[in-house]
Specification:
By secondary structure, the chain is α/β, with parallel strands linked by helices. It has a 6-stranded mixed sheet, sandwiched between helices. Helix 3 links the parallel strand 3 and strand 4. It is globular and about 35 Å long. The two termini are 21 Å apart.
Length: 118
C-alpha cells in the first residue's frame, strides 16, 4: 500500500507505517510547502492514499477531477496517545490495507469511528 503523509503527520506515525511495511512518502521531503491541490495531484500520479489531519481535503475531493483516496484523522484532544490509537486501529483492522475509498477515522472520547466518504 502506497501512502502520502501530509505535512501535519508526525514522524512517529510515518516511521510506524514504514515499519509495518507500508510505502510511505513524507510530503515534507519535497523541501517546500505544497498546496492541497499539489498534494492531491502528487498522490494521484503515484497512486497513493493521502493520510492527513487537514479537513480542507474533504471539500476538494468532492470535485471529480480532484477525487482521490484520503484518510482524514480526527482526534480530540490531538495527543500522541490518541494518534497512536488511531494508527493501531488502522493497521489492526486492515482498513489501511484494503482501502478503496476515502474515510474519516475519528477518536473523540471512545470508541474509534469510521465514516466513509462517497
Amino acid at each position: 500500500m502506497k501512502i502520502l503523509a501530509d505535512e501535519n503527520i508526525p514522524q512517529s506515525v510515518i516511521r510506524k507505517l514504514q515499519k509495518e511495511g507500508f510505502d510511505v512518502f513524507d510530503i515534507k521531503r519535497k523541501g517546500k510547502r505544497l498546496s492541497d491541490l499539489e498534494i492531491i495531484f502528487a498522490a494521484k500520479k503515484e497512486n497513493r492514499i493521502i493520510i492527513t489531519f487537514d479537513n480542507d481535503f474533504l471539500g476538494l475531493i468532492k470535485i471529480p477531477e480532484y477525487k482521490t483516496r484520503i484518510i482524514l484523522l480526527k482526534t480530540a484532544p490531538q495527543t500522541k496517545s490518541n494518534i497512536n490509537k488511531l494508527l493501531q486501529f488502522l493497521i489492526q483492522s486492515g482498513l489501511i490495507t484494503n482501502f478503496n475509498q476515502s474515510a474519516i477515522v475519528s477518536l473523540v472520547n471512545d470508541p474509534i469511528n469510521v465514516s466513509y466518504i462517497v
